UniProtKB/TrEMBL annotation:
<dbReference type="Pfam" id="PF00202">
    <property type="entry name" value="Aminotran_3"/>
</dbReference>
<dbReference type="InterPro" id="IPR015422">
    <property type="entry name" value="PyrdxlP-dep_Trfase_small"/>
</dbReference>
<dbReference type="InterPro" id="IPR012773">
    <property type="entry name" value="Ectoine_EctB"/>
</dbReference>
<dbReference type="GO" id="GO:0045303">
    <property type="term" value="F:diaminobutyrate-2-oxoglutarate transaminase activity"/>
</dbReference>
<keyword id="KW-0663">Pyridoxal phosphate</keyword>
<comment type="similarity">
    <text>Belongs to the class-III pyridoxal-phosphate-dependent aminotransferase family.</text>
</comment>
<keyword id="KW-0808">Transferase</keyword>
<dbReference type="InterPro" id="IPR005814">
    <property type="entry name" value="Aminotrans_3"/>
</dbReference>
<dbReference type="InterPro" id="IPR015421">
    <property type="entry name" value="PyrdxlP-dep_Trfase_major"/>
</dbReference>
<dbReference type="InterPro" id="IPR015424">
    <property type="entry name" value="PyrdxlP-dep_Trfase"/>
</dbReference>
<dbReference type="InterPro" id="IPR049704">
    <property type="entry name" value="Aminotrans_3_PPA_site"/>
</dbReference>
<protein>
    <recommendedName>
        <fullName>Diaminobutyrate--2-oxoglutarate transaminase</fullName>
        <ecNumber>2.6.1.76</ecNumber>
    </recommendedName>
</protein>
<keyword id="KW-0032">Aminotransferase</keyword>
<dbReference type="InterPro" id="IPR004637">
    <property type="entry name" value="Dat"/>
</dbReference>
<comment type="pathway">
    <text>Amine and polyamine biosynthesis; ectoine biosynthesis; L-ectoine from L-aspartate 4-semialdehyde: step 1/3.</text>
</comment>
């Protein structure tokens, strides 16, 4: 029995899908301790958009540590943090005419979400938040209350309150204009809906199964929030930092959320960093009112700054992500067409892609078959019925083709008879 089985909690999950012990990783490939390589089309659930041990970011972090740069600094002022704030402002905010203030809420996505929810409630004096079916916002109690998955919600141990789910785009299969329900409930004084402080939304639901909100839906949501005086929070923890093409996933819709949550790939190197961006008028915090020990992990600032300078001063990465995303999308559509009996559906935007299977069991078998052939990908969706394809954005064309060929093989091995 391994030490993992002996003393690590039963709560562990990814290691059950990939039961080997990993040791090294570069770019889109991760190696186990025996030197067996795997193409990584999971990319740290979106935390490794620039690949494993990206050499440019690695050098910046090594140089910083080598010169005894401050590692831990709470929210004290450091040179690394100043460089990050200046670079984020010049590279990300200014070109998009965004004037957000930047809050460091703690490193995890859930930290960024908790801060957003707290702030929305503080600003509006209202308690209720609107979330969407199949949303995923994290495991802390506030974030969990706006998360859909019943297994995860069940882990809370207390009632999860002050959140009301509405249908996400296309939840009703396009048969009913799902957006109308929310608007109707808001307008109807007899609906029983508490006046919401905020709406929290992912533009593409990652954990929820790669459910893509159309730009029209997002625009309507943003307009509705403005009309009704409800704050719009976009949780870009997984889809931000270029996963769908542009730096922010909401850019395609041309909307400007009131609050934006970032984590995962904002740390550049897989290092922990979270941000909550807020419209300046919303910055009503008292000093220290929302606090935390790990809000100044300087090697993460260094890696993030380097990533912004390397990948976000022009649109090269954005264009290549869109092109590669189209390529994956075509490959998945072809697969769906090749197995007409299996009811497969391709979905996604940019390099957040998914293939919907009839059930979670089949999707799980496909991911397992992919692992046996040297590819990491995971399932998503309420019953794990979507095989999710999220390579690093820096994946090469050759690696992408190699990975897609494995997906093809894995589907054939699982569904062979249905072709
Ligand atoms: N929000 C979204 C959209 C996510 O996908 C995730 C994690 O997958 C989170 C929040 C929570 O992030 P973390 O696991 O870092 O707390």
């Amino acid at each position: 029995m391994s030490v993992f089985d002996m003393i690590e909690s039963e709560v562990r999950s990814y290691c059950r899908s990939w039961p080997v012990t990993f040791d090294r990783a570069t770019g889109s490939r991760i190696f186990d301790e025996n030197g067996q390589g795997y193409l990584d089309f999971f990319a740290g659930a979106g935390a490794l958009n620039y690949g494993h041990n990206n050499p440019i970011l690695k050098q910046a972090v090594i140089d910083y540590i080598q010169r005894d740069g401050v590692t831990h600094s709470l929210d004290m002022q450091t040179v690394a943090k100043r460089d990050f704030l200046e670079t984020f402002s010049e590279t990300v905010l200014a070109p998009r005419e965004l004037d957000y203030k930047i809050m460091f809420p703690g490193p995890a996505g859930a930290n960024a979400v908790e801060a957003a929810l707290k702030l929305a409630r503080k600003v509006t004096g209202r308690e209720s938040v609107i979330n969407f079916t199949n949303a995923f916002h994290g495991m802390t109690l506030g974030a969990l209350s706006v998360t859909g998955n019943s297994l995860k919600r069940g882990g809370a141990g207390i009632p999860l309150v002050h959140a009301t789910p509405m249908p996400f785009d296309n939840y009703l299969d396009g048969l009913t204009p799902d957006f109308m329900l929310f608007e109707r409930l808001l307008k109807d004084s007899g609906s029983g809906l508490n006046e919401p402080a905020a709406v929290i939304v992912e533009t593409v639901q990652g954990e929820g199964g790669i459910n893509v909100a159309s730009v029209e839906w997002l625009r309507s949501l943003s307009e509705l929030c403005q009309r009704q005086g409800i704050l719009l929070i976009v949780d870009d923890v997984q889809m931000g930092c270029g996963r769908t093409g542009p730096f922010f996933s909401f850019e395609a819709a041309g909307i400007k959320p009131d609050i934006v949550c970032l984590s995962k790939s904002i740390g550049g190197f897989g290092l922990p960093l979270g941000l909550t961006l807020l419209r300046p008028e919303l910055d009503v915090w008292e000093p220290g009112e929302h606090n935390g020990t790990f809000r100044g992990i300087n090697p993460a600032f260094v890696a993030s700054t380097e990533a912004l300078k390397t990948y976000w001063t022009d649109d090269t990465l954005e264009k290549s992500t869109l092109a590669k995303g189209e390529q994956v999308g075509r490959a998945l559509t072809d697969l769906a067409l090749a197995y007409p009996e299996a009811g497969l559906k391709a979905r996604g935007r940019g390099l957040a892609r998914g293939l919907l299977f009839a059930d979670g069991d089949t999707a799980g078998k496909v991911c397992r078959a992919a692992f046996d052939r040297g590819l990491l990908m995971e399932t998503a969706g309420p019953d794990g019925e979507v095989a999710k394809i999220m390579p690093p954005l820096t994946v090469t064309d050759a690696e992408l083709e190699e990975g897609l060929a494995i997906v093809d093989d894995a589907v054939a091995a699982t569904l062979g008879g249905l072709r």
